[in-house]
Structure of Succinyl-diaminopimelate desuccinylase:
Amino acid sequence: MSHLEKLDGYFTENRERHLAELNEFLRIPSISALSEHKADMLSAANWLADHLKSLNIENVSVDETAGHPVVYGEWLHAEGKPTILFYGHYDVQPVDPLNLWETPPFEPAIRDNKLFARGSSDDKGQVFMHLKMIEALFATEGTLPVNVKFIYEGEEEIGSPSLPKYTEDNKEKLAADLIVISDTGLYAKGKPAVCYGLRGLTGVQIDVRGAKGDLHSGLYGGGVQNAIHALAEILASFRDEHGTIQVEGFYDSVRPLSEEERQAYRDLNFDEEALKEEVGVKELFGEAGYSYLEQTWARPTLEVNGVFGGFSGEGIKTVLPAEAGAKITCRLVPDQDPEEIVSLLKAHIEKHKPTGVEVTISEFDKGKPYLTPFDHPAIQAAGRSYEKVYEVPTAYTRGGGSIPIVAAFDEILGLPVVLMGFGLSSENFHAPNEHFHLENFDQGLRVLGDYMHEVATIKF
Amino acid sequence: MSHLEKLDGYFTENRERHLAELNEFLRIPSISALSEHKADMLSAANWLADHLKSLNIENVSVDETAGHPVVYGEWLHAEGKPTILFYGHYDVQPVDPLNLWETPPFEPAIRDNKLFARGSSDDKGQVFMHLKMIEALFATEGTLPVNVKFIYEGEEEIGSPSLPKYTEDNKEKLAADLIVISDTGLYAKGKPAVCYGLRGLTGVQIDVRGAKGDLHSGLYGGGVQNAIHALAEILASFRDEHGTIQVEGFYDSVRPLSEEERQAYRDLNFDEEALKEEVGVKELFGEAGYSYLEQTWARPTLEVNGVFGGFSGEGIKTVLPAEAGAKITCRLVPDQDPEEIVSLLKAHIEKHKPTGVEVTISEFDKGKPYLTPFDHPAIQAAGRSYEKVYEVPTAYTRGGGSIPIVAAFDEILGLPVVLMGFGLSSENFHAPNEHFHLENFDQGLRVLGDYMHEVATIKF
């Protein structure tokens, strides 16, 4: 019986128990962005640590940081074999608007072989797959084909502010041959992908203040600047009507797409009609001159994530608002530098600041974009493992999302990163009704187990 | 002893009791815009009705409407004398942001001879002055020099949706020679004003929808329209950088200011530096080519009163928002028509709608602008009453605010309207820490009492 057949039997037999354990993990509301969930963050970290210990993982610790803790563990008894450092995150996104969830975000529910819960796909469900793959290898083979280390953080959804320092401080402990991250997606249902690049992230909050307090729009209206109107003018100034970002210098350090890459993307025959159907829009909108895949994989963005100011309750309030604010984030591509982009944003805002208001800019955490050579043996081996289980060719893609820590790992540890994800883009990450297709939970466990054997044959 | 001396004695002697009664009225949180305050609206109406009855006012009723009730009362025993219809409103504005109030909005507090409470100035405090003036005349003279009727509504702050029908239905009952309204302000501290014109009001809510739900800004960002960004572009399109409104046809029916009016405004020597200090801005901002008084008295506006969309909590959420909305109101001047302006706004929004979103427009209630001939004897008499008490010349002004019902009274009842207000523009109407200068409460009572005698001599 091949190792894959043995794994298959084990996962089939234990599926019900595995899902019950995952539900335990998903029930912990570990929202890193909201300070009232600080205790839940610790609960989630402890749950992970306890689970690692139960799997024969050694030197397990819940390590304090300036923010939420990091969970570490290791098993290093495969002498002479490569070492994989597994990374993931146990924190999740906020859940508002709560009224749009069909079942509560922290009460996991299976419908149509999909597991609905905040974090089911991003990223608790995928972190949990690492653990169950280890459990299955020990159970079916009594040992592991490679050495493994685990590092799970609780701040990915807020830009991983503490992990770079932790990584720097624990360089020796984290030494490995490659990093495996499961926080990306398949190319499409039934079509696996290894992701060789990610966008970076940077962002600012813009706070606009006019008068020292809200004013009566009858008495003062027409003679004193309106903070919301001033903010809207700043926001509108960021783009032209074709979606091209107007911040001076914004595109200067963008690495142009090669004709080869553009052709590879075209060959994927991306279905724009299906996308429109999926997200519910009549027409797509993005930077002129680029295809949808290019826009979302290889071009930078500037998005307004939130806006607030004045009266937003029921009915009308004829107020001339004194304050307004917006949260902006940019997805960055190689070789844009997050610090430099923030400087350009600040200069743009200063230049476009309307009369009669003061503007304050606060910076959010930053993450660099990242690109891995796609012919690296660890990348190619991942493609093979997918093909064995999914039985179709693997797509080599780039991801539009950001995993800021990937660039930090690259810089600090100097390791290749293999992004082996099992999500689907329709799974509502960061939105109401997040879910995870259980067929990819099932197949992904087998892919990960096979990959351990693939890596065992690589000479680093 | 003159009637003014007698009133003076009475008001001095009863001041403490009067303020205690006013505080009772102010403690009722009669916020018309919020449906959870429906019961409080009825309490405030009943309080007023009971108070009118206690003053010998006859035929007092709390009349149901489609919205909040109207309070009516009358005293018609001054045979052969003119009849004044007093109007005011017992509803108040919402109180958010609550944390900016130094003392709670519905717990009246006196500091520095100013009465702090929501409604202290706009308009419960001034409505209460009508009542106490009547009480004082009965107490000191045993009768009233003119006939009086009272009509107090509970929907002024939401655009008086029910009062035009009520007025139409009760035309006979409301017949009078003039209408007196105390809901405007002095020109400045110590400098009284009779207001001969008011701006009208119209407004819309703009709701923008992109995708059917919020999306992950990494996965979709750059290829799907952002609802907030689209909204910001619509809002920015409403004005140019000089504050001139860009809605086609918006200014077409504006009655131009005469050179005489512009000169009269210049003669008031409006202190722009003091205004900047008062509202806390370094520079004013309004339509190019007009002075501040012209901008706020005689020119129309387009203000964003509120904006909302996406994530506005603590930290960042990298969401591509599917929905965003804004509340817009316009202050209108003669001869702009609210219905026509809404049509122009709709056409503008339709024309400036960005790609990839749907826009829904909802209309708010409307009020026409109004102008009274300023040489009308009832206007001039009001000026004289102010001068007797304040001992300085009265300014004849226009008001930037809207009392939509004024235009409706004009249309339905065909009566001159005398706007005799006692507020000050620094009193934070519609904002936190609304207050009323008690010196104007005291002097205003005497002005109103004297005006009853002035009106008794006018032949209508």
Chain A has two domains: 3-198+369-456, 200-263+286-363. The radius of gyration of chain A is 23 Å. Chain A touches chain B through 99 residues (CB under 8 Å). Residues 3-198+369-456 of chain A form a domain with the Aminopeptidase fold (CATH 3.40.630.10).
